[in-house]
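P.,

For your records, the input lines for the assembly:
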Amino acid sequence: MNVLVYLLPMALFIGLGALGAFLWSLKSGQYDDLEGAAVRILNDDDLPPEERPHKQDQSQDK
Amino acid sequence: MAEMIDLSLFVQHREDGAVFVELAVDGITGPDAIHEIEGGLERIDGVLDARLNYTNHRVKVAWKADQLDPAIFLTTLKDLGYRAYPHIVRSEEEAEARKEKWLLRCLGIAGFASMNIMLLSISVWAGNASEMSIETRDMFHWISALIALPTIGYAGQPFFRSAFAALRERRLNMDVPIVVAIILAMVMSVYETLNHAQNAYFDSGVMLLFFLLCGRTLEQAMRRKTRAVAGNLAALKSETAYRLDENGQAVLVPVGALQPNDKILVRSGERVPVDGLVVQGTSQIDESMVTGETLPRNIETGATVYAGSSNYGGAITVQATAIGEDTLLDEIERLLEKASSSKSRYIQLADRVGSAYAPVIHTTALITLCIWLMLGASFHDAILTAVAVLIITCPCALALAVPVVQVVASGNMFRAGLLLNAGDAIERLAKVDTVVFDKTGTLTLPELQVANRNDIPADLLEIAARLAISSHHPLSAAVATEAKECQPYDQVEEIAGEGVRAIVNGQEARLGSYGFCGFSEADTHALLKDESISIVAIAYGAQRALLAIHQALRPDAVATLQALRKFGIHDIRIMSGDRPEAVRSIADKLGVADWHGSMKPADKIRAIEELQTKGASVLMVGDGLNDAPALAAASVSLSPISASNLAQVHADAVFLGDRLMPVFQALATARKARSLMRQNLGFALLYNLVAVPLAFLGHVTPLVAALAMSGSSLVVTLNGLRVRRQVGVGTKAQEAGTVKETLINGPLESSV
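Structure tokens returned:
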């Protein structure tokens, strides 16, 4: 049963850590623009121009 | 647009000393817009950062105070192909967003707590089956209590508040039994833990809370989303006005920045931005938005004009009056107050069920207690069983069933181009058996159109249309929409009160009044037989023609009314403020026998209330300022997006686009949603029929409670999702198109 002495606090702290992360992300407005976050990863302006895919492919499906 | 708008009213301060504005952006069609807009704005000297919210279509731009004029943002975005307009966060929208965050916080905490308590509970259940020392079990229970009690105290607040509010008004709602069950579960669990008992219900209570919060949060998220879209549309619709400063200089300002007693210049063809008194100039104004009357009214100095009417004639100066100073608005406000109070009497289905349900389960628990006592059980055991009955009958499935259906149904409506203002509107829509339409702007399109375009030679019509682009007259706007090539002619001369003329291919072309183009009054008689028609003439060399301008029916008005009749709604009426002759022609086209013209706001209310006292459930569809009281009085109401602000505020839902079909779709979706709500309520009842005897016999352990509660919640949620499979599937793509197009084009066009 001694194993509980550190297992229980560990489980609780991991849970609390996740809760803290959630509350922090909520407070810092990360849930304000869920759709934007989904499409922002498709932005390729951080790549040099020659590595970007052809633009026509994207502009066609509007 | 060379003129710069004064945006100083919209500038806000940030903690780091920078200032920012929030702009609603129109024309976003894909993810490329993010980079284009943010990049374009950040290239401006002095801009610190720009961040586009892709969900809301709003961009926040921050810059160092006093370094630049924010109006440049609008022109920059315009050059990029986006229309932007400063957005004032309306208080109700802010409140919805705050509430959503609060609920999410509660949900996160309840989620954390239920997971961790379940971790401990499963150990206890396993330990009860094998061997576990009492000390260890107690410790597990105490840790559970340590997590559960603060969680209930914090995350339970949404329910506590609503339940207390209901009790204070001496009625019961769904939250009352929920709160009773949760609190009793906690009290009993603490007591049992003190007595080193085998079972505690901490997990049940917290899990219950988590499921319920899921329902609440979903509901709130949907509400906030529709508010945000509505806010954008309002911002983009907002127009600008020319305010005259002390020196008589006209400055372009957003309408939102206008104050009472400001003097405003309204040029020919513009909309009057505020209610006010004409202090200079004479003109004709079209008040169809305000009163439904389609014939223009002559006004002169001293006359009262209302926001939303269009100036047909010369330029006028209007002095803004405070709201409530003039008679028409006063009258409408007064009627509104009376009408709105009658609507709040509607009690939501969930609350009606809740108020019937709560006494039943509380009685059942009491009976359980008595029977166990009579059968000779100890007081402790009897109480324990009674509390188990309360926990197991806690209307978890009920509280989840209705919101889930509401959320999915309003998502469907959203896709069909309908924005709900009120959550319970779905239930009220489902009961509708009578539909009352306003005519002007509701059954008809808000913009005027050329009625006899097929009788006019195409080349002549094209010349007329391109000439019309250069004219400010509202009738010209209707002609201008016929242009295939949207390019105005060079050197167009406008002759006030007559029309416009220009030299086209070496010949003179004229567009304007019939006299201006060489027609005599007798020529117009044939067309003017139809009283809803106004005439514009075109002359080009030897060719000339009369164009009949009228308010066209919405393209699918006939089909919508047919669909409504097929749906079983036969009582369709038209109540309009316009002249009876104008109403008659529309009513004939639609096959509506029951129509009334020249109705004042009070007449409309009286007619609707008369219907309602006969037991009818009335849906009012209207757009004008004069419709607002009727919209508030009817059981449920819809407005087109082009409606006056006051009408939109009092409508339960707003529909986008030129089509009238959303009215039918609203009713069809609502009916389907109601049947699913009833199914869910039926299932919840069935669940109780099984669970209550179990609890009554004392067989409900925390494990059974956990299985029963999550199982029933899952079933009602999945059933609720079925609203998605829906009426009018074939038009889905088209519906989605409508929303998009309207977001892009609609508000733009209405402000031109």
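Two observations worth noting. The first helix of chain B runs from residue 32 to 42. Residues 449-550 of chain B form a domain with the Calcium-transporting ATPase, cytoplasmic domain N fold (CATH 3.40.1110.10).

Regards
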